[in-house]
């Protein structure tokens, strides 16, 4: 199958050819015809499968080949859970639509509202937004959503995890009832199905990956190491190829900053990206990483959402994630488009239980290879009594919404980017929420 056979406008085919894209990915081949027909779509696709093009190409086709009476009002709305993903989607839409007369604007928190208000006043066809900042504009009446013909919910599972359901309901409540709705999620979990029932009309379903699947081109490896020696082992691994682009995940914002300082003191070019960083700092760090000005990007889970880097050879888990599902999201940044990738985890004895959870989720063993000179003082335990870090105790899933460990919905953000209307969560007495 080719993009030509999908019936896309010649201007889109030209832009795709200029980017070197000739054949659609499975999610694109499955989703684009459904979207072009005008029906609602419920699509399951992991990050790195080409899902952004799966909705942006037919969206651009529709807007460029039809007219509307919605003057100076957006005709399409794309909602994403994070700023980084919103910026990435906007960048892709501009790339694919470079030969079309279709305008777009991106709206997220962490930056001033002035330029966003000006863009909206000039009139745009597509708005890409995070829920919190969009509601800010709705409250100030600087955006008119009455002309929206197409709604896209991108990474809907993550938006639910982050407590965005009240915000989604509020936004969707002001949209026209007659519209096309496209929902993209990593899985068809029960809460996603419930969301589809509320907001969609007889959606078609397209799924290209089973739940919690990972690319077969990714190799998994564990280096056991005592917590106190993790930084030294990381330097040892990075020293094998100091020019290799490496994405490193930590559990906390403080841990990310501390690790970057250590790497820089050791002569490596590194930067951190997390919720306490300003939007300009996050954008700059990601840009420097993509351009090669820095070789190590240290990230937390939520901040890393939306990182889209071609040919990333390795992802290192300096800390294992609090819940096993986040391992899948983390390593989805490598092994893309058929390229090989390595997911390397530095695991202490205290994280044995987290490793056990990941192996059970993946339904496969992960190679455990000790590095000479960095052997564990106490071996890993992968039985039913495997220990876990205190701040990473498994959280029950309640009320149909996947609950994240404390801190995921409490990310520091003064501009309404996360969890508008999110319910308060109780935590055990004396336990502080883990920072992200």
Please explain how this structure is put together.
It is a single chain. This protein is α/β, with parallel strands linked by helices. It contains 14 helices and 14 strands. The protein has a seven-stranded parallel beta sheet with strand order 3-4-2-5-6-1-7, sandwiched between helices. The protein has a seven-stranded parallel beta sheet with strand order 10-11-9-12-13-8-14, sandwiched between helices. Helix 2 runs parallel beside helix 3. The protein starts with 9 loop residues before the first helix and ends in a 68-residue tail after the last strand. The model is unreliable at about 390-435 (pLDDT under 50).
Q: In total, how many domains does the architecture comprise?
A: 2
Give me the CATH fold name of the largest domain. Rossmann fold
Helix content: 25-40%
H/E element order? HHEHEHEHEHEHHEHEEHEHEHEEHEHE
How much of the sequence lies in strands comes to 5-15%
Under CATH at level 1, the class of the largest domain stands as Alpha Beta
CATH architectural name of the largest domain: 3-Layer(aba) Sandwich
Strand order of the largest sheet: 3-4-2-5-6-1-7
Name the structural class. alpha/beta
Ends: how far apart? 42 Å
User: Could you give a short account of the major beta sheet?
Assistant: 7 strands, parallel
Low-confidence residue ranges = 392-436
**Overall mean confidence score, pLDDT:** 82
Number of helices: 14
Instruction: Tell me, briefly, the overall form.
Output: globular
Radius of gyration: 22 Å
Organism: Dyella monticola
Biased composition (Low complexity): 389-398
Protein name: DEAD-box ATP-dependent RNA helicase RhpA
Pfam family, one: Helicase_C
């Amino acid at each position: 199958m080719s993009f030509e056979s999908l019936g896309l406008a010649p201007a889109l085919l030209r832009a795709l050819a200029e980017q070197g894209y000739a054949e659609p990915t499975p999610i694109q081949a499955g989703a684009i015809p459904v979207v072009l027909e005008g029906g609602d779509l419920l699509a399951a696709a992991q990050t790195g499968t080409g899902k952004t093009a799966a909705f942006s190409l037919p969206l651009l086709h529709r807007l460029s080949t039809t007219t509307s009476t919605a003057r100076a009002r957006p005709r399409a709305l794309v909602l994403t859970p994070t700023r980084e993903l919103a910026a990435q989607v906007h960048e892709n839409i501009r790339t694919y639509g470079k030969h079309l007369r279709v305008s777009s604007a991106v709206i997220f928190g962490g930056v001033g509202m002035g330029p966003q208000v000006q863009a909206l006043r000039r009139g745009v066809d597509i708005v890409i937004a995070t829920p919190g900042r969009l509601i800010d504009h709705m409250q100030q009446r600087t955006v008119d959503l009455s002309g929206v013909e197409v709604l896209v919910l991108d990474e809907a599972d993550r938006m639910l995890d982050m407590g965005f359901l009240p915000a989604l309901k509020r936004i969707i409540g002001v949209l026209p009832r007659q519209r096309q709705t496209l929902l993209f999620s990593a899985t068809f979990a029960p809460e996603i199905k419930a969301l589809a029932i509320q907001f969609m009309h007889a959606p078609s379903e397209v799924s290209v990956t089973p739940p919690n699947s990972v690319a077969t081109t990714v190799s998994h490896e564990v280096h056991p190491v005592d917590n106190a020696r993790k930084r030294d082992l990381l330097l040892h691994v990075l020293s094998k190829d100091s020019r290799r682009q490496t994405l490193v995940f930590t559990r906390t914002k403080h841990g990310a900053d501390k690790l970057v300082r250590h790497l820089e003191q050791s002569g490596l070019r590194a930067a951190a990206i997390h919720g306490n960083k300003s939007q300009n700092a996050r954008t700059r760090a990601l840009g420097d990483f993509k351009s090669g000005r820095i070789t190590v990007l240290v990230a937390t889970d939520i901040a890393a959402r939306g990182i889209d880097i071609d040919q990333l050879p390795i992802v290192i888990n300096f800390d294992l994630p609090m819940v096993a599902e986040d391992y899948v999201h983390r390593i989805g940044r490598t092994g893309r488009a058929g390229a090989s990738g390595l997911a390397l985890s530095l695991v202490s004895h205290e994280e044995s239980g987290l490793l056990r959870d990941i192996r059970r989720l993946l339904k496969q063993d992960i190679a455990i290879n000790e590095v000479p000179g960095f052997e564990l003082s106490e071996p890993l335990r992968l039985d039913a009594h495997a220990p876990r870090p205190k701040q990473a105790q498994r959280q029950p899933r309640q009320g149909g919404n996947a609950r994240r460990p404390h801190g995921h919905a409490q990310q520091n953000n003064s501009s309404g980017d996360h969890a508008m209307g999110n319910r308060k969560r109780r935590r055990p007495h004396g336990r502080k929420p883990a920072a992200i």
